[in-house]
């Protein structure tokens, strides 16, 4: 009995669907302009998406080419001095600087990276608030550079003697994808920022965590010394 009812339901459902398809075909025949409008809108959406993707790819390629010389100037800072940083920042008249790349290619990954470079340059120039603003506009998913950016923001606050915010950003740096090569240095900075605030308990907790998690790191010895000084 149940199978019979189920069979009847399937037949009824098929009939209902057939009626709907027939009705749809009739509507299409009666409304050709509406159908063309819907198809046109879909083509615009799909075409627009592919067009935007292509535009983004070409913009990124162009941004990387334009930024190449700025990176070269930045990397020559140690040998060439502050003049190379100015050229990296503002360009040389023939090649764009990092600020130009951000202005002209703002939605590209290259412009995002340019924010990091600008933040580093301003920090080296002692322009702490502008450095912080550009570093805050930078974001990355990698294991190293994002943590480095957090630490540099902490440095800007440390230079301004805003030790509370410095500790916050050093903490962000140390907790972002922890690793034995860089995290211990961020933790030392975090502990020192707490010490500057007179928060010795929090500083000792950071030093203890460093000693426990990164016992073989060179910074572990410093953490033991700083901890002993506070206890």
Task: Tell me about this structure.
- With 231 residues, this protein is mostly helical.
- The chain folds into two domains: 59-139, no CATH class; 140-231, Serine Threonine Protein Phosphatase 5, Tetratricopeptide repeat.
- The protein is 81% helix and 0% strand.
- The chain contains twelve helices and no strands.
- It has helices at 2-30, 32-75, 77-80, 82-90, 98-104, 109-124, 128-137, 145-159, 163-175, 183-196, 200-213, 218-230.
- The longest helix has 44 residues, at 32-75.
Outline:
The protein is mainly α.
Key terms:
single chain, 231 residues, mainly alpha, Serine Threonine Protein Phosphatase 5, Tetratricopeptide repeat, 2 domains, 81% helix
Following the backbone from N to C, one meets helices and strands in this order, namely HHHHHHHHHHHH
Number of strands: 0
Q: What is the third-level CATH name, the topology of the largest domain?
A: Serine Threonine Protein Phosphatase 5, Tetratricopeptide repeat
CATH superfamily of the largest domain: Tetratricopeptide repeat domain
Average of the residue pLDDT scores: 84
CATH class of the largest domain: Mainly Alpha
When the domains are counted, the total is: 2
- Which CATH architecture of the largest domain would you pick? Alpha Horseshoe
- Beta-strand portion reads under 5%
Low-confidence stretches: 4-8, 47-52
């Amino acid at each position: 009995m149940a199978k019979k009812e189920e069979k009847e339901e399937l037949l009824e459902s098929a009939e209902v669907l057939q009626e709907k398809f027939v009705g749809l075909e009739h509507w299409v025949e009666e409304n050709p302009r509406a159908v063309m409008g819907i198809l046109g809108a879909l083509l615009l959406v799909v075409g627009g998406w592919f067009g935007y993707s292509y535009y983004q790819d070409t913009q990124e390629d162009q941004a990387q080419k334009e930024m190449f010389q700025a990176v070269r100037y930045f990397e020559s800072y140690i040998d060439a001095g502050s003049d190379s940083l100015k050229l990296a920042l503002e360009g040389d008249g023939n090649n764009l600087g990092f600020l130009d790349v951000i202005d002209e290619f703002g939605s590209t990954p290259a412009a995002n990276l340019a924010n990091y470079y600008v933040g580093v340059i301003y920090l080296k120039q002692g322009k702490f608030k502008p450095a912080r603003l550009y570093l805050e506009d930078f974001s990355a998913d990698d294991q190293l550079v994002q943590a480095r950016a957090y630490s540099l923001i902490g440095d800007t606050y440390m230079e301004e003697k805003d030790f509370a915010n410095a500790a916050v950003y050093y903490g962000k740096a140390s907790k972002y994808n922890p690793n034995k090569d860089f995290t211990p240095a961020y933790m030392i900075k975090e502990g020192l920022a707490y010490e500057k605030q007179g928060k010795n308990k929090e500083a000792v907790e950071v030093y203890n965590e460093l000693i426990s998690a990164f016992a073989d790191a060179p910074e572990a010895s410093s953490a033991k010394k700083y901890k002993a000084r506070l206890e």
